[in-house]
């Protein structure tokens, strides 16, 4: 249970995010985030680079992923404690505004529904005095408009509990069996995140395999050992299910 001191530390107002250092994000990383290359984004952060680095136009990894509608990349980035979510580019647009402008309703939901110590600013306005909601209305994205009109930010956990709920990429403890996909760091399930085993023996969730196939049509290299999966693959469902992990998940849910 959170102490009174912990509760007093829980932020309730939108985060006043840091000013960006323009030109610190390489152009290939902007494209990696925009195109959904999660492994490249993850490696960039693992190498000690700033998760809030921005390119010459002020685009961060998060804003780039929002432009491209890459929900998996957005979800991964929001698991990192030091991410800032209200940063602004040259036009004053935030990542939420970019997702709203492009009509990526699922990404908008991902941003709005994620509890994070950097509290999202739903009412922020860009240099043209437009909020994310107004941007969505101007662009004619009715589905995004409804998400934002009904948005209610989730209640945050106490800081200590919040940190424990995240999955920092450098805090992994080796174990015999992993019950979360080691690419997106989401827990395996029996649907979108169902574990599938590549011919090299490594397991990856269905969603991440689909993302890899989207970027590299009919060519599936293991994201860990880079071994080319045997045979041509057109969709993730063609990869064998890891029934050992399936069995454990079924037992735990029964």
From TrEMBL:
Is Metal-binding given among the entry's keywords?
yes
Which PROSITE patterns does the record cross-reference, listed alphabetically? ANK_REP_REGION, ANK_REPEAT, ZF_RING_1, ZF_RING_2
Q: Which domain of life is it from?
A: Eukaryota
Ranges of residues in domain RING-type = 181-226
Q: Which GO terms describe its molecular function?
A: zinc ion binding
Q: Cite the repeat ranges for ANK.
A: 24-56, 91-113
Would the keyword Cell inner membrane turn up in this protein's UniProt record?
Answer: no
Question: A Pfam family name for this chain?
Answer: zf-RING_UBOX
Keyword entries, A-Z: ANK repeat, Metal-binding, Zinc, Zinc-finger
Mind telling me what this protein is named?
RING-type domain-containing protein
Q: Which organism is it from?
A: Petrolisthes manimaculis
């Amino acid at each position: 249970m959170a102490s009174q001191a912990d509760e007093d530390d829980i932020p309730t107002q939108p985060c006043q995010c840091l000013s960006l250092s323009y030109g610190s994000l390489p152009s290939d990383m902007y494209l990696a985030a925009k195109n959904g290359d999660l492994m490249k984004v993850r490696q960039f952060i693992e190498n000690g680079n700033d998760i809030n680095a921005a390119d010459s136009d002020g685009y961060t990894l998060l804003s780039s992923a929002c432009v491209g509608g890459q929900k998996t990349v957005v979800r991964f980035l929001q698991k990192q404690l030091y991410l800032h979510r209200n940063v602004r580019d040259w036009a004053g647009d935030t990542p939420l505004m970019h997702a709203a402008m492009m009509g990526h309703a699922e990404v908008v939901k991902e941003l709005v529904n994620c509890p994070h110590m950097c509290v999202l600013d739903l009412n922020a306005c860009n240099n043209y005095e437009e909020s994310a909601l107004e941007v969505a209305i101007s662009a004619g994205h009715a589905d995004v408009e409804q998400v934002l009109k009904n948005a209610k930010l989730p209640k945050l956990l106490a800081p200590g509990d919040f940190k424990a709920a995240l999955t920092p990429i450098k805090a992994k403890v080796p174990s015999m069996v992993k019950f979360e996909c080691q690419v997106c760091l989401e827990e395996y399930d029996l649907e979108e995140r169902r574990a599938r085993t590549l011919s090299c023996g490594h397991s990856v969730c269905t969603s991440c395999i689909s993302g890899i196939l989207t970027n590299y049509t009919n060519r599936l290299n293991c994201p860990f050992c880079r071994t080319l999966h045997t045979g041509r693959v057109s969709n993730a469902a063609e990869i064998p299910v890891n029934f050992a992990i399936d069995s454990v998940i079924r037992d735990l849910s029964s």
